[in-house]
Hints:
By secondary structure, this protein is an alpha+beta fold. Helices cover about 40% and strands about 15% of the residues. It is built from eleven helices and eleven strands. The strands form three sheets. Strands 5, 6, 9, 10 and 11 form a five-stranded antiparallel sheet that branches. A four-stranded antiparallel sheet has the order 1-2-4-3, with helices on one face. A two-stranded parallel ribbon has the order 7-8. The longest helix is centred in the first third of the chain and has 20 residues. It is globular.
Amino acid sequence: MKRYQTPPRIDIGGFGGMSPRNKMVKLLEIAVLAPSTHNTQPWRFKFGEDCIEVYLDNSRQLPAADFKKRDMYISLGALLKNLETAAEALGVLGGLTISNQKTEHAATIHLKNLEKPFKLSGKGQKTVDNIASRSNYRGPFGPLTISKSTLDIIRKKDTCQTVLITDKEKIEELARLTAEGLRLAYRNPAFRKEIASWIKPNSSRQKKGIPGYSLRMPLLTSHIIPKMMRVKDIGEKLAGLNYRSFITANSVAVITAAKEDPRTWIEVGRRAQDIFLAVNRDGGSTSIYVAAIETPGLDKQLHKALALSPGQKPQFLFCIGKPLLPKVYSPRESVRRKLY
């Protein structure tokens, strides 16, 4: 297990002297460390002369778990935030254009100064290290002091806004709704089969999907559980495990928005990743829980529990706290395999 507890090391020391193409590859190596639903990594890329075009990879959709593609687009948004953050830290960000989402083309990152050699500050490496050390945490939390700068990011309002819950009774209510969402989801054989196909044994060399160690499974269990899930409803067990972790959270953040469309979900993903990186700088971790949002009926109960205005809809939910167990890191596919 210990070899999975070391974050990926991305050295940017030679970035200033690289060729423009190699600079774009390096930026994407940082960007793909973003979280994605079940580590499906639903993105593809194309290089322009001074830009990177980002595309949705529809072959990575999870029809049973994410039939609206909400989580796919949120994943793209998280990747875009990583790409923006890294490009800005390395002095090459020119801007971001988000497309109309009528095709698989999702957005374009515009770059500048790619031809110029330059020296990087230590701050740039710290920014990259922060991106690399973030991971989706699974396990119990301890208390965490959230910094003012992180609270400022959380409280920001634009296309989306974030509700921060710190009341323990309210957190327990959200934990109950999340647990019920998992129970309902796992009653569906198609959902179980789909999820099982994306859980990989610890010994697997595949670079996509959820390795068993990310779920804190020992080697043997990581081989058995996916097979068991296909034929047996283990929703009750998983609901209990997730409930017990959820209620230890320092706080719960729910990102809301008025619209439910791909462009909005990309903005939700950008906001979520911005918060993830800020919490990571504070020494905390985040755990993503979307079962209550994705389950018809429970989303309305979640809306009521959060006392949202009629115009705001829950889009994404995650817990925040101090990790009590070592963080673990899932693999990523090679950037060069993701290029058109």
